[in-house]
Design brief:
Order of helices and strands: EEEHEEEHHHEHEHEEHHEEEEEEEE
CATH architecture of the largest domain: 3-Layer(aba) Sandwich
CATH class of the largest domain: Alpha Beta
CATH topology of the largest domain: Rossmann fold
Helix content: 10-25%
Largest sheet: 6 strands, mixed
Number of helices: 8
Oligomer: single chain
Structural class: alpha+beta
CATH superfamily of the largest domain: P-loop containing nucleotide triphosphate hydrolases
Length: 313
């Protein structure tokens, strides 16, 4: 696959407090993939999306979309000429316009194009309704339809799932991925939620302090984090030796385990128990977290366990 988007040494500082939100970012997004920028609030991920869309101007660097330079020291192509579609966090639907008018707003779409996108996004029956008359899932599809009807090269999604309750979130996440793949469009997804990122992404970039810390598939970055920040951001960790850590799912309670421990706490999470154990490793007392399905354990019980996996820095 070719690089659809390339960013080279993208740097951006805000004068108030001299805050750096992009610190020499180099990044390639492949054609047809769902690429996610994953980071905490304030990490710079939304500003990154806005620079790619042309809504913020980098201090310097270069942005290339489909082999065309849209930003460098001599060029700054307007947002509506960059072949990008944007879905904002709150969907930005206009309440006084019908669904059909929301989708075509600001564009030169034909009635035929509108009807086609309505059909593809299962919104035909909502064409003459207003945003308050449709469900949250339908509102998400309207925002997607509005972005996709302009036939962008890349779809930019700024935390579209962040304000949705847990039950609906899973449904909309599935719908979102299905539609993106069905349209065959390249997508950049911005989120602070690792579960959303793992579900949706072909590749993930972890961002902090305006820097890209690691890029890889969800499986790669989880099992092979480049540093302790990335490791802790993606899941719980326990230090067992200097520069050696393990995750709860790598601890197995078993009768013939190498190590002995005493159970300190048991928390039920529905699909598993999280057990905190006190043990000694290399003559050092350590608290270990373990995920297990065993519902016969009790606090202060002595157990044996094995360490099945380690992360070494």
């Amino acid at each position: 696959m070719k690089n659809l988007v390339s960013l080279k040494n993208i740097t951006k500082r805000f004068s108030k407090g001299d805050i750096c939100v992009a610190n020499g970012i180099d990044l390639d997004i492949l054609e047809g993939e769902i690429f996610t920028i994953l980071g905490k609030s304030g990490s710079g991920k939304t500003t990154f999306l806005r620079m790619l869309a042309g809504l913020e101007t980098p201090d310097y660097g270069e942005i290339i979309i489909d082999d065309k330079v849209v930003f460098d020291k001599k060029t700054n192509i307007a947002p509506n000429e960059r072949w990008v579609g944007v879905v904002f966090q709150n969907y930005a639907l206009l309440p006084h316009l019908t669904i059909g008018s929301n989708i075509t707003f600001g564009g030169n779409c034909t009635q035929k194009e509108l009807n086609e996108i309505l059909e593809k996004t299962n919104l035909s029956e909502t064409k003459n309704k207003y945003p308050h008359e449709i469900s949250g899932g339908q509102q998400q599809r309207v925002a997607l339809a509005r972005a996709l009807i302009r036939k962008p090269k890349i779809l930019l999604l700024d935390e579209p799932l962040s304000n949705i309750d847990t039950e609906l979130r899973g449904i909309l996440r599935s719908e979102l991925k299905t539609m993106i793949k069905e349209f065959g469009i390249t997508a950049l997804f911005i989120t602070h939620d690792k579960e959303d990122a793992f579900y949706l992404s072909d590749r993930i970039a972890i961002m902090n302090g305006g820097k890209i810390l690691q890029i890889g598939t969800p499986k790669d970055i989880y099992h092979h984090p480049v540093d302790l920040y990335c490791a802790n951001f993606l899941g719980k960790m326990t230090k067992i030796e200097e520069n050696i850590y393990t995750r709860p799912e790598h601890i197995e309670i078993c009768k013939d385990g190498e190590f002995e421990a005493t159970i300190k706490e048991i928390v039920f999470y529905g699909s598993f128990y999280e057990v905190t154990m006190i043990t000694r490793i290399n003559n050092t007392q350590t608290e270990l977290l373990c995920h297990t399905y065993d519902d016969n354990l009790s606090i202060e019980e002595s157990v044996r366990f094995e360490i099945k996996g380690k992360i070494v820095f």
